[in-house]
Amino acid sequence: MKYMSWGLGMVVIFLAPAVFPQLSARAVTDTMPPTGTIVINSNRSATNNPEVTLALTWDDGVGGSGVTRMRFSDNGSNWTGWEPPASARVHTLPGPDGHKTVRVQFLDRANNYSKVYSDYILLDTTPPTGGILINNGDATTTGAAVTLALHWDDGACGAGVTRMRFSDNGSTWTAWAFPASARPYTLPLPNGNHTVRVQYLDGAGNYSAVYNDYIKLQMYMDMVSVTAGKFPMGRTGEGADVYGRTDEDPQHEVTLSAYKIGRYEVTNRQYCDVLNWALAQGFLKTVANEAWAGSGDLYADADGSGAGTDTVLIAALTQPGCNIQYSRTGFCPKTRTGLPDGTVYSMAMHPMVTVSWWGCAAFCNWLSQMQGLSPCYDMTKADWPLKTAPPTAGGYRLPTEAEWECAAAWDGEKHWTFPITSDTLSGKGRANYYDSEPDFANPLGLTTMPYTSPVGWFNGVNSSPNGNVTTVNSASPVGCYDMAGNAWEWCGDWYLDVYYSGGAMTNPTGPDTGTERAHRGGSWGHGGGGGDGDRCAGRGYFEPSGTSDGIGFRVVR
User: Fold this and answer.
1) How many other C-beta atoms can be found within 10 angstroms of the C-beta atom of residue 534?
2) Do the domain assignments include residue 457?
3) Does a structural domain hold residue 514?
4) Number of C-alpha atoms within 13 angstroms, CB side, residue 164?
């Protein structure tokens, strides 16, 4: 109440107290700066796109006033304006290529500045360069198996080349593989000029241009020549040759005419190429002698007449160890995983297995027809007898036991015990076999059987991913590979345990009849110390319709 007077009277004025809004505020004392983090592109090491994504976190503590702003810098001196905080933000890296650091700083309501936090990434927008050379630049090759020499460069500021891939046609590519300066490669059919393409990929995701080289394929099968002459056939009785069976005895003289034999076992890719041709000709059948329609095992008409249901098994596609398959584009090799770290390997260069004797003979005839040569087997008669036997010239056929052993063992002066030009076989660098001390060689570390290796793997150049075992060049005296281990190899002969006990022979082709066919050489799953496997004189046998993931073949002419 306030009293006021004017003149003689007194007036009392009651003034009510003014009512004002009450200001309610909590005093906050915040002297601690906030903390935070920054991560560029989910912590990747490189990018080919200047526009990156920043992942951001911050913390102002339990009693803090709260982060209200953040700012960024590429050099630590020039900063963006302050902006509201966000957990993700797009940021554009400045040029040129090179390592880039992005910095962030946070500000809270109490005007406390955080430290400067940073992360870095390599900006690489330039594709790598490279090249390819087939067989050191040769103009022609007599074998489909070639070697690619490869080189690449990603520049001083590049992320580095991490993958490469290959193509025969520019549209269908292999899977991405780790870069290597040398790589085995198989040219496809037919004979003629072939272009092989390579493309490189760097760690920032930049694709190189496609580089290529070409070469002329003049022969599909890579064959080595064996000169005419005499050699002692059978086990020597010395060293590891004390093992084995009496069907290798006695050692006797054999005279052979000149011939050519496959340097390598027939590969899955080669077999697929011939199957695709045979399918187009209508040669592939079901067990009921009907046209094969894309599934199940492969058969052929037993006498070529097309009448009845008499068929012979060619290849067991349904067997787990089979490494070929049929797809919408035709027969093709499968892939399998191995070392290191689940690497995916094509089985194209591995030996064709799960193939019967009939399947080998059919391959020989069909390949001969493809190349305009005279087929050696009469597929219109029971048991498909040879109609072009050595020394008569003709197309492809299976080697006789004598031809196989001569190519495996004989150097003109000495009969070697093992087909690696050696009297001993030990270690994982000489052949792909099961030593049992301690385990399979399995050069690629395949996770499922069969543990085959690419043909010609043991050449003194390759190093096995499984154990980093450097190979020793392990060719036979005439230059054939994998005659010890990898896969047993069908021969043309019927098997008879006493056939070679009759003394000297000239161009022997085996008994006229029988129930089993002979095979030679041992496999990835067979011990190498003795017995009937891996040694040059060792003999095996199997019914001609039998298939196994450890039996393949090579051819002769």
Assistant:
1) 28
2) no
3) no
4) 29
Give residues with Cβ within 8 angstroms of 123, minimum separation 6.
Answer: 46, 47, 48, 50, 93, 95, 97, 98, 99, 100, 204
Q: How many residues would you count in the chain?
A: 557
pLDDT tens-place string over residues 418-468: 999 999 998 899 999 997 667 899 999 999 999 999 999 999 989 999 999
Closest by alpha carbon to 159, among 55, 296, 47?
47
Listed in sequence order, the residues at least 6 apart from 124 whose beta carbon sits closer than 8 Å to its beta carbon are 46, 47, 48, 97, 154, 157, 158, 159, 202, 203, 204, 206
Asked if omega into 250 is within 30° of 0 (cis), the reply is yes
Do 158 and 201 reside in the same domain of the chain? yes
- Residues 517/550, Cβ–Cβ less than 8 Å: no
Percent of all residues in the chain with a pLDDT value above 70, rounded to a whole number: 92
Residue type, 136: N
- Is residue 283 a part of any domain in this protein? no
Full residue range of the structural domain in which residue 43 is found: 35-123
DSSP character at residue 511: -
Contact 81, 71 (CB under 8 A): yes
> Which CATH number belongs to the domain containing residue 86 in this structure?
2.60.40.10
What is Dmax (Cα atoms) for the chain?
166
110 with 140, same domain?
A: no
